[in-house]
Amino acid sequence: MMRCPSHRRFLLLLHLLFFLVVTEVRRVNCDGHDYQEALSKCILFFEGQRSGSLPADQRLTWRGHSGLSDGSATGVDLTGGYYDAGDNIKFGFPMAFTTTMLAWSVIEFGDSMPPSILRDALVAVRWATDYLLKTVAQPDRIFVQVGDPTIDHNCWERPEDMDTARTVYSVDTTRPGSDVAGETAAALSAASMAFRLFDPGYSDTLLRTAVRVFQFADDYKGAYSDNSDVRSGACPFYCDFDGYQDELLWGAAWLRRASQDDSYLSYIQNNGKTLGADDNINEFGWDNKHAGLNVLVSKEFLEGSEYSLESYKAWADSFMCTLIPESSSSHIEYTPGGLIYKPGGSNMQHVTSIAFLQLVYANYLSRSSQTVNCGGVIVGPSSLHQLAKRQVDYILGDNPMEMSYMVGYGSKYPQRIHHRGSSLPSVNDHPQFIACKEGSVYFNSSDPNPNVLVGAVVGGPDEDDVYEDDRADFRKSEPTTYINAPLVGVLAYFVANPNPN
């Protein structure tokens, strides 16, 4: 078919435009970071943490099936879910928080994800929620952990070879666990929102279950690690150090957002003070939800639909001011290279979760044309965007070590991470069983890990920006799911806004 000259000119212009766009994208990626690549790898990491029977489309093929009899000693199916870090334990408390943050990332920033990456993010969420549904399948009982950490930590063993005790820990009406139950209700509620457009039936199941689990949390109040049986397994790793009250508010807040049920609004209004919503602790993570709670609830006030929640906006403002170096209320520490730093190990969990809250709150402020007054220092959305960008760019390589702290991203990244599956030969290369102590030779080796856990973000450098790449130094070299989960949302934002104003 003959094309007219004007059509040929149009095609030439289209090709020219395409060339200019591609050139501009390449220029931006050369000058900055490839946030889309980092996002894809950040989500891929979760495939390396999978427990259970792996699907045919598993991309990290050095992993194999594991934990296939989890729960059987108790007569329940507890297969699936994620190992929280570099060991082979399934801790329910941090896993539920990981799930909440993955789902929140999709809710707030899913529109910024390319379709294929959004699909991968939802798959990562569902791998967790399918497991969480199993843990709450029995009325008034929640299975909160699988595996004895003392025994597990005495071995350096692939998850595929696990022959250590897969002890099951649970809470019930006489041994309550409002913290784990509240966080699980939050996770299922947030996930119900993430799946609402893609799988309405599954979304409904998640929300119905969240309602029941939250009722259990509120009816039988108590911290799960106050239970001596659970304490023997969860502590000192994931004790509830900050109390269960914040998880009750957190669970109610997510149920309010997911269901729009006024009873949860009343719960937040009536219990905020008594449950410590005004506790302005400058952290947010698996054990302390106050800062995230205040940001989450403030959305409804900022939208102008619920003025009784104004105090939550004030508390969220106060938290943001603690992060502003110029503010008189600043309480955060930064390394000389500019990284948020909190002593205690696994520092990147604080970095990624705080950066996530900064971006979410910046978006809420931007939509309502509001700012934060930090004692005469006015902080707008653009300031919060820039603060978060400095943190994510540091993680990806803009730091004194010139190292990416995400495995597999960039030309220089940690080679000896504290992770059993990554550091031991894969079952493909070494199908023979490797017993508990036989793995010690690989732990003590100075060789790089044979299996690259793509996307894993390690605990990170010390307060002087120094990182030794030492497998034995788990505080710096161990990745965790709750480091990566909020980073999914952070990276998704910068995919769409690589150079925020």
Automatic annotation (TrEMBL):
Q: Identify the InterPro entries for this entry.
A: 6-hairpin_glycosidase_sf (IPR008928), 6hp_glycosidase-like_sf (IPR012341), Glyco_hydro_9 (IPR001701), Glyco_hydro_9_Asp/Glu_AS (IPR033126), Glyco_hydro_9_His_AS (IPR018221)
- Presence of the UniProt keyword S-adenosyl-L-methionine in the record: no
- UniProt superkingdom: Eukaryota
Pfam families, A to Z:
Glyco_hydro_9 (PF00759)
Any GO MF annotation of the entry? cellulase activity
Q: What is its EC number?
A: 3.2.1.4
Q: Does the keyword Signal apply?
A: yes
* Reactions performed catalytically: Endohydrolysis of (1->4)-beta-D-glucosidic linkages in cellulose, lichenin and cereal beta-D-glucans
Residue stretches in coiled coil:
none
Q: By its UniProt entry, which PROSITE patterns does this protein fall under?
A: GH9_2 (PS00592), GH9_3 (PS00698)
User: Biological process GO terms, please?
Assistant: cellulose catabolic process
Q: Which UniProt keywords apply?
A: Carbohydrate metabolism, Cellulose degradation, Glycosidase, Hydrolase, Polysaccharide degradation, Signal
Q: Which Gene3D superfamilies match?
A: 1.50.10.10
- The active-site annotation reads H418, D469, E478
Q: What class of enzyme is it?
A: hydrolase
- The segment(s) forming the Glycoside hydrolase family domain are 35-491
Query: Into which family does the record put it?
Result: Belongs to the glycosyl hydrolase 9 (cellulase E) family.
* Designated name of the protein: Endoglucanase
